[in-house]
Design a protein that fits this description.
This protein has 4 helices and 7 strands. With 136 residues, it is of the alpha+beta class. The strands form 2 sheets. The chain has a 4-stranded antiparallel β-sheet. The protein has one domain (21-132).
């Protein structure tokens, strides 16, 4: 299967060391059910912030074109609590090879992965909200 990547992806993105998506992951969303706006990569959502992080060496442009997913629900809950602006709903994703490419990109030894979604793929078909992070 040949996946088509969005035209604004940089060259060699997803990276060669990524692998076909496969497995169960968790993703932080703001809507239940999740909407297309929940699946906008950082670079498209906030290019200024993305470019600042790239300049600081925190990430690459390719990574900012992907979505942050986590292999462990507890990591997703912790991230939602730490970065309150990204949402408080944890969605469960069941990914197969047609969902794109992933790469383990840990932050603080967590289960963080970057997920690159191909043009023709609708992420909403693989996602179900499974947990709400309470904010007090």
């Amino acid at each position: 299967m040949v996946l088509r990547w969005p035209a604004d992806f940089p060259e060699n993105c997803p990276p060669e060391e990524s692998s076909p998506a496969n497995g169960v992951y968790y993703y932080i969303v703001t809507n239940d059910p999740p909407e297309p706006s929940d699946f906008v990569p950082l670079y498209r959502r906030n290019q200024r912030l993305a470019e600042s992080r790239i300049r600081q060496g925190i990430t690459t442009q390719c990574q900012t074109m992907g979505l942050s997913i986590l292999g462990d629900i507890s990591d997703a809950i912790q991230r939602a609590n730490r970065f309150r602006g990204i949402g408080n709903l944890i969605a469960r994703l069941v990914l197969t090879s047609d969902a794109g490419q992933i790469l383990h990109t840990p932050r603080d030894d967590d289960s963080h992965h970057t997920w690159w979604v191909p043009e023709e793929y609708d992420p909403a078909i693989t996602v179900t909200v499974v947990h709400e992070v309470s904010r007090s």
